[in-house]
Amino acid sequence: MNPILPPSSGRELSDPPSDGISNLRFSNHSDHLLVSSWDSSVRLYDASANVLRGKFLHKKPVLDCCFHDDSSGFTAGADHTVRRYVFNAGKEDILGKHDGPVRCVEYSYAAGQLISGSWDKTLKSWDPRGASGPSHTLVGTYPQPERVYSMSLVGHRLVVATAGRHVNVYDLRNMSQPEQRRESSLKYQTRCVRCYPNGTGFALSSVEGRVAMEFFDLSEAGQAKKYAFKCHRKSEAGRDTVYPVNAIAFHPIYGTFATGGCDGYVNVWDGNNKKRLYQYSKYPSSVAALSFSRDGRLLAVASSYTFEEGEKQHEPDAIFVRSVNEIEVKPKPKVYPTPPP
Q1: Could you give the CA distance from residue 4 to residue 214 in angstroms, rounded to a whole number?
Q2: CA dist 8 to 16, 260, 261, 320, Å?
Q3: Which of 105, 181, 238, 300 to pair with 169, CA 20 to 30 A apart?
């Protein structure tokens, strides 16, 4: 049995978004937290102090966000735009546009580029150091087999998950073709992809309560390590209820990871030992997004209904920031039986 933590969801941040949290991310440099929302806003919080540092508005929903550095960030808009915000100056500019809503943005420190993924079935890479405007900043456009749903970076590797269960793996130093073209090993639509911090592979979640652990190494031995497991399910009276797994976040120190589902639960997993370490007490609504702080001491949780059951009465959106205890995220050492004398 895995322990369920006592009913403390963590500290709730003040002034949350009013309609659907699409993502949240901690900075790599501080406890600043960037939050994008369907209410057309992007918010910057100091998560430790519980202070809203800034709020910026798009004309339409904001579907993703990421930091550039501690003083600026990028957003993906349903208005087809990729925007840059300079927080302290309150400035924004449009880096460029897609032909459809922009679903994902990822900034690569290794390549110095921003990558955006859109429902127009393309990736675009941008050089944010150039002057604003698409002709100055667009580095390249890369067609995808379907609409882009989720992306993740580690080092020079970019993993792109699209509709139709396609997964493309790119080397940012040569984007002309994917390094690998794969099909998800899960049977249903992909919700989230996140790379392992050690750069050896990625985790993929689906709408059908499963997570797949994948590896970049295509050798027989490398591929023999991959596996998938069920999670975010409930059994009642012999009937299984299955919930989408919306979010995956890796702990930056221990490489264990948290998953968040439409059941309102956050589970912490030890992928190497194939064990669940912890389950936090239930959140008021679906867990839409998760992010660990740079040192792994804090976990931000977006409790936000994701319309998996259509229009219905639901709890208001909330952002919780919980302090992480080592026991919740540190892998337990394997215990080997003592051989007989």
Answers
A1: 28
A2: 19, 16, 18, 10
A3: 300
* Percentage helix, strand, coil for the chain under 3-state DSSP, each rounded to 5: 5, 50, 45
> Higher model confidence: residue 132 or residue 176?
176
Of the candidates 296, 332, 92, the one whose C-alpha atom is nearest the C-alpha of residue 197 is 296
Q: Give the CATH number of domain 11-308+319-329.
A: 2.130.10.10
Q: Which residues, 6 or more positions from 123, have their beta carbon under 8 angstroms from its beta carbon?
A: 115, 116, 117, 141, 142, 144, 148, 151, 160, 175
Question: Are the CB atoms for 75 and 55 separated by under 8 Å?
Answer: no
The end-to-end CA distance of the chain, in Å, is 31
Question: pTM of the predicted model, to two decimals?
Answer: 0.92
For 103-155, write each residue's pLDDT tens digit. 999 999 999 999 999 999 999 999 988 655 555 589 999 999 999 999 999 99
